[in-house]
Amino acid sequence: MEYRRLGKSGLKLSTLSLGSWVTFHQQIDDSKADMLMGLAYERGINFFDNAEAYAMGESEKMMGRVLKKKQWDRTSYVVSSKVFFGIHGENNKPTQRGLSRKHLVEACNEALQRLQTDYLDLYFCHRPDKETPIEEVVWTMNHLIQQGKILYWGTSEWSAAEIMEAFMVAEKYRLIGPTMEQPQYNLFERTKLEKDYLTIFKDVGLGTTIWSPLASGLLTGKYNDGIPEGSRLDDKKMEWLKNNILNDDKIERVRNLKKVADDLGTSLATLSIAWTISNPNVTTTILGATKKEQLEENLKALEVYPKLTPDVKDRIDEIMGTKPVLPMF
Predict the structure, then answer these.
(1) Pick the catalytic residue: 3, 54, 77, 123?
(2) Is 54 a catalytic residue?
(3) Which residues of 193-232 are buried (b: 16+ CB within 10 A; e: fewer)?
(4) Residues 38-73: tens digit of each pLDDT
(5) Which of 65, 151, 265, 280 has a 20 to 30 Å separation from 258 between CA atoms?
(6) 3-class secondary-structure state, position 137
(7) SS3 assignment, position 156
(8) What is the pLDDT of residues 160-171, one digit of tens each?
(9) Could you count the other beta carbons within 10 Å of the beta carbon of residue 314?
């Protein structure tokens, strides 16, 4: 396993990590979660990602039960939570979502209870909150750090301007700004990481814990001939996701990308994951898995990404046609 610094912090995360969105509680039970987390840990993964909204809190409860059973040295791994959406879905009261000081503090305390831990290593603002002053967010995150409840705080799916505003507020009041951002990053979604955040990476420093490296399964090729029964996009609750990612043009590009994977002697999924970690601004790529074989295959990305030479990446760019155009200055 390779380890990378989280932005300019001293924390090192495994280049591949394990997440729980969609899978924990919804697709797998405690025994499978135990097996997958155990395999991940044995292979050097030290970061396990979660959020209050995943399965309305049940994902964190499941991870907490597994961690308690494993009894790993708490200093040997990193665990996260994210705050914004709340755990009650459409039944949230006004105070049970967003980034107000009240919800940030209460959601943190609830995550600690669900995960059965004394502190969160990483605590993310899961989305920007247009109704809460950024000063309130930055001050509250610093209070939580001072209380020892979180070690680092960050953002998820924030714009470059919103992240920089948080940095400026932190500098103004001599507080700790965001250490990391969790954006979607894959061969279809590239603009934020490859264009919008470049100035932040250069001038301030920002770690990234990227999600959806396989574009919700599209980059595995499993949707090339329709939607398989039992797959994520076969779930009626994921209708919104299906409408967002499935179209003939994308599927054709995935079919052509398979030729590159075949030439490298690997799978589409492994190639796509390897491509994400070939970007030096990616700290860690979060994997999602429901089976041992799936996780083992994804971990092979560590062996594949050194093979992604400039020529190979140019070939991938030509097939995908998604590389952002950078300004000339």
Answers:
(1) 54
(2) yes
(3) bbeebbebeeebbbbbbbbbbbbbbbbbbbbeeeeeeebb
(4) 999 999 999 999 999 999 999 999 999 999 999 999
(5) 280
(6) helix
(7) coil
(8) 999 999 999 999
(9) 11
